[in-house]
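User: Hi! I'm working on a homework problem where we have to compare a predicted structure to a textbook description. Could you give me the structure for the chain below?
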Amino acid sequence: MTDTLTPAAAMASDTEDVARLLDHEGRRVRDEWLDRWAADVDAAMLRQVYRDMFLTRRLDAEGVALQRQGHLGLWAPAQGQEAVQVGTAWACHDDDFLFPSYREIGIEVVRGVQPRDFVMVWHGAEHASWDPFDVHVANPQIIIGAQSLHAVGYAMGIQRDGGDQVAVAYFGDGATSQGDVNEAMVFGSAFSVPVVFVCSNNHWAISEPVGLQSRTPIAGRAPGFGIPSLRVDGNDVLACIAAMRWAADHARSGRGPAYLEAVTYRVGPHTTSDDPTRYRDADEVAYWRARDPLTRVESYLRSLGAIDDAFAAQLTADADRFTAAMRSAVVGAAAPDPMRVFDHVYAESHSGIEEQRAGFAAYLDGFAEGGAR
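Assistant: Happy to help. Predicted structure tokens:
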């Protein structure tokens, strides 16, 4: 993005300078590089991919509603980013280990995370969501960019164990300014570990536009670390599948890390504590709503005759059941025993943690009926 471009021209430039396989209207287009990585993606597979995108959109809306109704302390909306999340997760092997930030609910849908696990941490009733080793997805990282280091560390373990998995680090455009992400890229490249970095460029790091943070495309940074990169349309799920297949194959084959910049857009607020109308123009949001990732793949599937009323009804029914389970898990949930905070700090107890446990118990006793205030 250059200083001479108007906002409208800058947006148009940003969405055209990417690799894609479905255009904004859902029509199949050719890309010499990506086509071979999507050759076996048929309508049956895309129906299931669309199903996961649809479910992600619905559970995201339910998360926002639950927060607004006071059942969750916070929620980080993912509307508009479903294609990059679901597409890249579908391209991975089941035992590849994924390291998300707090917004990648789509990868968690693909991996089978259960309804309650999407809400209980945000409700404040749990200190972690799911068992990472059950679904090969780490618990979401709230510290910006820290998961990139975790992914590289895990990938170093894969390398030393002689495994054929890859680790995948997900982060946003804002995280690319963090030292953690850059340090992870240094280590990943230096040791040629099997890791893929996926940057979801949603154009806004809270209230800072990506054009202020990075004067050139973010994908251009990776080659400086010796890491090949690809800039892909993050609202085109077919392109995201193909791009991730290339990146994972590169990492899995012993050639070191790969990097994807998926150009997408955060339609909603950064979190439910944010008001994006204070810093974003309504025309910009409208521009990206017209490039909705769900509408795009749905149009393509309808052109193939792969969506009918029965399929659409089943999607709605599945989403209704899922979101109802989210709601029932969190509404009226009992407050957890405060002492549980100590249960999984260490594998084995020791005098230090026992001293802290006793001190905290005494503090809580002070609030008991008739106790000291």
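For your comparison, note the following. The first strand starts at residue 97 and ends at 99. The mean pLDDT is 93. Good luck with the assignment!
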